[in-house]
TrEMBL record, chain A:
Topological relation to the membrane, as annotated: Multi-pass membrane protein
Protein name: Amino acid/amide ABC transporter membrane protein 1, HAAT family
GO molecular function: L-isoleucine transmembrane transporter activity; L-leucine transmembrane transporter activity; L-phenylalanine transmembrane transporter activity; L-valine transmembrane transporter activity
Alphabetic keyword roster: Amino-acid transport, Cell inner membrane, Cell membrane, Membrane, Transmembrane, Transmembrane helix, Transport
TM ranges: 12-35, 42-59, 95-116, 136-160, 189-208, 228-257, 269-288
Gene Ontology CC, one term: plasma membrane
Organism of provenance: Desulforamulus aeronauticus DSM 10349
Pfam families cross-referenced by the UniProt entry: BPD_transp_2
Family the UniProt entry places it in: Belongs to the binding-protein-dependent transport system permease family. LivHM subfamily.
Location relative to the cell: Cell membrane
UniProtKB/TrEMBL annotation, chain B:
SUPFAM superfamilies, sorted: P-loop containing nucleoside triphosphate hydrolases (SSF52540)
Species of origin: Desulforamulus aeronauticus DSM 10349
Keywords, comma-separated and alphabetical: ATP-binding, Nucleotide-binding, Transport
Protein name (database record): Amino acid/amide ABC transporter ATP-binding protein 1, HAAT family
GO molecular function: ATP binding; ATP hydrolysis activity; L-isoleucine transmembrane transporter activity; L-phenylalanine transmembrane transporter activity; L-valine transmembrane transporter activity
PROSITE patterns, A to Z: ABC_TRANSPORTER_2
One GO-annotated biological process of the protein: L-alanine transport
Cellular-component GO terms for this entry: plasma membrane
Family annotation (Pfam families): ABC_tran, BCA_ABC_TP_C
Ranges where the ABC transporter domain occurs: 6-254
Amino acid sequence: MELYLQTLANGISLGSLYALIAIGYTMVYGILRLINFAHADLLMVAGYIAFYGIMVFALPWWFSFLIAIALTALLGVSIEKIAYRPLRNAPRISVLISAIGVSFLLENLGIVAIGARPKSFPRPEELVWNIKLGDISFLSLTVIIPIVTLLLLVAVTYMVNKTKTGTAMRAVSRDFETASLMAVDVNKVVSTTFLVGSSLAAVGGILYSLQYPQIDPLMGVFPGLKCFIAAVMGGIGSIPGAMLGGFILGMGEVFLVAFMPELSGYRDAFAFVILIFILLFKPTGILGENVVEKV
Amino acid sequence: MGNSLLVTDNITMQFGGLRAVSDLALQIAPRQIVGLIGPNGAGKTTAFNMITGVYKPTLGKISFDGKDITGLKPNQITELGIARTFQNIRLFSSMSVLENVLLSKHVRLKANPLEAILGLPRYSKARKRHYEECMELLDQVQLADLADEKATSLPYGKQRRLEIARALATQPQVILLDEPAAGMNPQESLELMEFIAKIREQFGLTVLMIEHHMEVVMGICEHIVVLDHGVTIAQGTPTEIQNNQQVIEAYLGAVDEIA
């Protein structure tokens, strides 16, 4: 029983982390039909900024986290401006390759500038402590991560469905040209999308660094890929889909390790096996709709 | 030209070797209803696309209300007061009828992001007013009871009306209608004509419309421009156009060919 509860808690925690990051993929895809590969590396950037803020500039942890989120969001918006916007009317594959380029650039810049050796991420005492409930004990993060995620998910869902910006986002994701003829400033909407997606990635990156407190320039790659799979699984382009996909993937991974320890070496492969099956049997994802190509 | 609201000064659109529109010169006075007609491929929709900023004219200038708007982005032009509908209906399929209209209304909702996030009274009041105005607009096109339906679940004729309502929501001075009567039967076309006349009065609109239904064009337009292969072959009142030999030839072929 304890094992179940413990595993469930871990699963929710990891799942919500995945959900948070997957939303960034799905939002950008929804608007630009682009898999933003650089999204994964934003986790790393946020982790390092937070790290340097605390360790080098001796800032309070919360302030350092805020700065990390702001700068990462800014970076995300700049990436779109510099690497994607000039290719707005180019074939989709060009933008995709540009995205891969940005991703490699960030990773290798990290290796050159910071070094490939992992650094250990500080865990503020106010944020990370042990909780004991009867026989189960767990890190406070197991609770904090889902709560933070839940708040952000509610905020994003509200924004997309109820606000002016959100309506504009949904319109742009359907039809750029018509939206702009209804006086929607498409560039502004795209920037806002990157701003929101990158902020979520930054929060995800910081939480990830707290949970697995070792950061290195390639730390974003695997969680990034998995969250991309989560987005595809839920139905890429759909925000509730990304949330659902993230939770399923996180849960699945944790349960696999807990109940089939002999397979735990395949932990990272699990996501890819799921990806293969999704693409074979339900390529539009769980909540994805069948997209009719625009004529 | 002195009191024209929308003027295109010999605009030309060249696509590679194809001159889709050449030297189109329109002068549209405020509150006028102008028809743009011509056979398929004459360049009518291209002209609309230039006026609304989707294409930048290869040559020529467009001015609106005395301002040069050539090369502005579509959203800037819409914001200045030119709205349009589409030949093939382009509603936002995943959104409700009301949301489609609200989106267009949003350009007139000025608030700083902080007010919006905090939901300050001024902002929520403005939002509420917008909502009411949109419902009123839907009421006028008799779609109010369908406000929460998905836009694309409406029958065809109602989708057309919704497109007009959506364009009106941007509070335009000029509305460009691209084949508003397409696919309508004579009775529906008649109602549409009355509707267009009504909104012109009510909103003080200037209308430029592309239309193939001659009874609509002749019945409602005060001025007609005829395009053929991108060239303006005639301009004038409905009577003048009906008796214009070149126009008859463009539509039916030269007389000796038929005979």
